[in-house]
Amino acid sequence: QVQLVESGGGLVQAGGSLTLSCAASGTIFRINSMGWYRQAPGKQRDLVATMTSSGTTNYTDSVKGRFTISRHNAKNTVYLQMNSLKPEDTAVYYCTCTTWRPYWGQGTQVTVSS
User: If residue 41 lies in a helix (H) or strand (E), which one and from where to where?
Assistant: First the structure.
């Protein structure tokens, strides 16, 4: 089993920045992809950004140029630097990683006020 613990969410004004962190622990043989999804009230959970173990990244179009995903493979940790935040970025952000199956964190709330 793999456990994911997120941190770094909070309330920020539009135009501000936040950094999310997520650490994986437990029985880990090899983590392939790590990343972030988000879910706004009444909406489905959507991809924000992912990064493979080799460093290949994938971003949803709405965050390109504003968000940066990074990983520390030896620490099984993934980060999401979020700049120029907008009210529409408000959501619960979920960390995910994939070994032989996907695992999810509990989520951390990000609220951007206008």
Answer: none
Half-sphere exposure of 46 (CA within 13 A, CB side): 15
Q: Summarize pLDDT for 56-106 with one digit per residue, the tens.
A: 999 999 999 999 999 998 899 999 999 999 999 999 999 999 998 999 999
The b-or-e profile of 58-69 (16+ CB within 10 A means b, else e) is: ebeeebeeebbb
Closest CA to 37 of 77, 6, 76, 2: 6
Helix (H, G, I), strand (E, B) or coil at 1: coil
Stated length of the chain: 114
Beta strands 2-7 and 18-26 are antiparallel
